[in-house]
């Protein structure tokens, strides 16, 4: 039997829809603007106040970017560190978090050490010294290893594991599984939402690698997409606002990339990571724990 | 399946980790320890030279042909490292602290960090070498003063025109449309700005123009002469020089801007408007008065302006006559970026000379008319005609990034030291007729204009360097409030009081002490 929605319900539904629609529009508009400007010619960009639909669609900005081998290479570098870094992050965070749920010797001390890094950071220079001493300067691993485990993610991961009924573990042990098998056969399959969520967090973090790349890498060929992107965008700023001297220095060496190129670069550098979201969406909502324990 | 994947991942990680460590070359980190070899001929010995510096341009690749050409020409193994300027100020202190300092170190300006490193003995004094290199000898004393600490020169300043900082420009065609003449004082300027706002200067029948372009943080303000600028020009009752931002001249300028704001000649949203947007709007024909320079113009903007206003004309407003009878602009520091040499090279004079010779070569000025394939030095520096650059209508057009790495200049990133500002002839490289005529006329105007050498640029006051930014923020905030009418101009003394209490007194005392010690005064030239 169907009930008719009351008037107030309908009104509140409409208000919700329009409010959320407006919010969504607010979020989408900057992306759309970036998209539109990236296809606009520079002359049109300068002459118009706000570009919503280019009068003439041009591909100049994209031609410039895809001709610059640095841009494509840095995209490759970023994809590499995102994939490898994210997998490594998950592997080490999950295994350590799992160990932290077991009743083993020194567990509490290690947990305390993890929490300790929440509050106190070594700072930029000591970390640099460690990276240098371990021979990681100018290596991609300097971008991955120092941030292998995020303490906050570890704690949440541990909490997630603790919520898995211990009866499942016991059942597996009775069936003859060892610790590693319990982890891979029972815990991981039950923790897909956690892996999806933290995998995404880590992936976004790795994708945005910027400052550590500047700090630890010396060879420009190894720079990540964010460094190159920022170069292009900063160069625009330099071309527009800096003192004449800085501007001279900026343009003396090459043609100044204009705003439209900056927009195209932003789009290219954002799209790949944006595309990851829809694929992980379903895992966030799914409650895999339902029905796992009968009795 | 999962197990296999994990195993593969671990193996590949371990493998690439090992590969990366194996490739790690120790020579990058420390090359300056090679003992001075006095038996070998100074010119035939190959030196390994490392450098670090900031850059605004796309980063050059580590194996460009331009780099190979430099190595061959100077018989060196040059390993430059460039860091985007946005992050360079964070990276260099870390590299310094880790003891990885290369042979040559670039920095954007003389600041508190520079002073700290000098005091720590990181850089070597260069006084003994200067006379040997023509482009170093050509640096005027006022610029050397800026990099001198306790009587010793610790850095090589690189050229930047002292006269060509941004100047107030106006739309001459609007002025003619309204039958007005070029303003010669603030009152006349105010009338012009108001007329530009209210009298339809572009004659399109719409009320769509503003007289004066002002942006967030009062980036350019409205200084039409040294007395109204930020330089240390005025004196207080004790006879000490004071910064322009708290002077009577600046008060007059602030009053002027407040009046314009009241009249609606400044956009009501100026205090939250980005300088880029205002600039864009000026070239879209919305503002009558704005700021522009003569070197490094963006011709795209001029093209856009001419497209919708073919009659447009832009002229610099000449400096106003001051109450003390002087008339002229504030000169800028005359340099941009500095290069220091690692103090470890103190006992390697041959290597130091090789480095300075390398810098000297790239600093050597080539007049505009000789910038062509017939000049062998120019052709080499720019990577060879049709490789690093093209000649189009007798003008050099650099091959764009990334083909640019065949140019040795990409790896030096050092400006020519021009014998004087006029020698740059900036209009010659321009193609837009408006940009060309504006630039040429401005260079002519500034050639005969007097300039005040800002004495504060010639001393290195650590107190000023540490407190300057904060103090500027205080005055800027007060002045923003005064312009929009939130605070009356009569609050000026309160602003000065806050400035003094928050460290202004110490700054003024320290700067004046240094000026006295070095015998530096503010002078016109």
TrEMBL record, chain A:
It comes from Paenibacillus methanolicus. The chain crosses the membrane at residues 75-98, 110-131, 143-161, 195-217, 261-280. This is Putative aldouronate transport system permease protein. Signal peptide: none annotated. Residues 75-276 form the ABC transmembrane type-1 domain. One of its GO terms (biological process) is transmembrane transport. PROSITE patterns: ABC_TM1. One of its GO terms (cellular component) is plasma membrane. It is a multi-pass membrane protein. CDD domains: TM_PBP2. Belongs to the binding-protein-dependent transport system permease family. PANTHER family: ABC TRANSPORTER PERMEASE PROTEIN MG189-RELATED-RELATED (PTHR43744), POLYGALACTURONAN_RHAMNOGALACTURONAN TRANSPORT SYSTEM PERMEASE PROTEIN YTCP (PTHR43744:SF9). InterPro entries: MetI-like, MetI-like_sf. Keywords: Cell membrane, Membrane, Transmembrane, Transmembrane helix, Transport. It is found in: Cell membrane. Pfam families: BPD_transp_1 (PF00528). Its main location: membrane. The keyword Transport applies.
From TrEMBL, chain B:
Residues 1-18 form the signal peptide. The keyword Membrane applies. It holds the Pfam family SBP_bac_8. InterPro entries: Bact_solute-bd_prot1, SBP. Keywords: Cell membrane, Lipoprotein, Membrane, Palmitate, Signal. This is Putative aldouronate transport system substrate-binding protein. It comes from Paenibacillus methanolicus.
